Amino acid sequence: MTKQMTNDKDIKIGVVGGGSWGTALANLLASKGFKTDFWVYEKEVKAQIEEYRENKFFLPGFFLSDNLFPSNDLIEVVSNKNLVLIVVPSHVMRETALKIAGHISEQTIIVCASKGIENGTHLTMSGVIAETLPEVPESHFAVLSGPSFAREVAAEFPTVVTVASKNHKTAQFVQHIFATPFFRVYTNDDVTGAELGGSVKNVIAIASGIIDGLGLGSNTRAALITRGLAEIRRLGLRLGANPRTFTGLAGIGDLVLTCTGELSRNYTVGKKIGQGQTLKEILSEMRMVAEGVKTAKSVYNLSRKLGVEMPISHETYHILYDDVSPREAVYKLMTRDLRHEMDEE
Ligand SMILES: NC(=O)C1=CN([C@@H]2O[C@H](COP(=O)(O)OP(=O)(O)OC[C@H]3O[C@@H](n4cnc5c(N)ncnc54)[C@H](O)[C@@H]3O)[C@@H](O)[C@H]2O)C=CC1
Ligand SMILES: O=C(CO)COP(=O)(O)O
Description:
single chain; disordered N terminus; eight-stranded mixed β-sheet; N-(1-d-carboxylethyl)-l-norvaline Dehydrogenase, domain 2; Rossmann fold
């Protein structure tokens, strides 16, 4: 780390993305005493934070620290920083990263807290960032993932997450920057596993909402979570992840949270589908992002390309994009060829 980083009060942070998660994390950092520049996409979000110290659009009800400086100037927010946290929805990651290319200082650590797999390329966010910001070495990159609803972090409910980086010193630095007595941070070296766990669980969470919307019971949900984890792990193994990551915070931890928590946008989208609303109707009423909707498409195409069996993700894709009825999808899953439980690979 650079000399500057030895003294916390000199550490300069930029946060890119003013949705719920970006706001909760930026405020956590600002409340810790770091001067935090905060890029928000909408002019009205900036104006409102300045006037009310609140992000009424994406994180209503929480007072934001005076140490948080909202801005619509992306370049200014990422320039000359020790750490830049990127937390925009995955479908705008590429365009956002391209805008900051060439403006990241050599020593800057990039942390990504977005969860998703890009349509078309099937890249996780580290892959998109590697393509768009080639000046950022792998050793300066980390992923923050794990079970963490923005509103619960903003409310300072005890939350435990993981930071994955190929470089242990980078992971430790990021751990130190984010940790508070209510936000415990573990380190991990499995970037691929942390990203896949955090992304594919959103697809399974939609499926979990669907089964609740259909009025199916706890047996069904427990089965869905267990078999959902099996297919996340199967994809992960194929892509070189460490299988142990899927028994950790970015795996089963985030999967359980999102499949059971009413605060989950993905679960909520699924529940409304199970209750009979169309995807189009649901999305037209949402300003926030339910990453699983787009990730379902990536997972469907990627798993077919790789020949990885992911039946729950596939049925979820067919419900979202091919008008397959949720009840028919459940029937298909339940009547697949019978097999040995541990035939994973
Ligand atoms: N909200 C949460 O509890 C958590 C969210 N995440 C992840 O964080 C990422 C960001 O999600 P949230 O902060 O929840 O966002 P959000 O869903 O609350 O809000 C959407 C955000 O997208 C921004 N946006 C819309 N169009 C844009 C564009 N063209 N360019 C740049 N930004 C644009 C909006 O300004 C807003 O900040 C997602 O990948 C999500 O899965 C991860 C963990 C927890
Ligand atoms: O990733 C999350 C919690 O860890 C948030 O999930 P949702 O996007 O479904 O709300």
